[in-house]
Write a structure and sequence with these properties.
Blueprint (H helix, E strand, L loop, with lengths): L6 E5 L2 E5 L12 H14 L4 H16 L10 H11 L4
Antiparallel strand pairs: 1-2
C-alpha cells in the first residue's frame, strides 16, 4: 500500500489507480495482513481486480482505526466504507 496515495494495480498490461480515503490511524499492526486477506477473498469470489483492491483498502483502513489488531472489521463495515469512498467501484 502507499499510505494516503492511490493504490496502483496492473492487469493485462493496464495500469489502474484505485483511490483511497484517508483513515485515522490508531494502530497499523496487521493492516497489510487484512489487506491481503480481503484482496484474496474478493478475487476468489470473482470480484474484478480494481474493486477487490478498493475493498481490501477499505477493510485495512477500518482495522487501523482500531486499537486491537485482532478486531478484524466485518464485511458489511468494509462495504459501507467502500461505498463512502467512491462510486466507481
Amino acid at each position: 500500500t502507499r499510505g494516503p496515495q492511490a493504490l496502483i494495480v496492473f492487469q493485462a498490461g493496464e495500469r489502474t489507480e484505485v483511490p483511497v480515503r484517508p483513515a485515522r490511524e490508531r494502530n497499523p499492526l496487521a493492516a497489510g495482513d487484512v489487506f491481503a486477506a480481503a484482496l484474496f477473498i474478493e478475487l476468489s469470489r470473482g470480484t474484478p481486480l480494481a474493486r477487490a483492491t478498493a475493498f481490501a483498502c477499505a477493510a485495512a483502513a477500518l482495522l487501523v482505526g482500531r486499537l486491537d489488531p485482532l478486531a478484524f472489521p466485518p464485511r458489511a463495515a468494509a462495504e459501507r466504507r467502500l461505498r463512502a469512498c467512491t462510486s466507481t467501484f
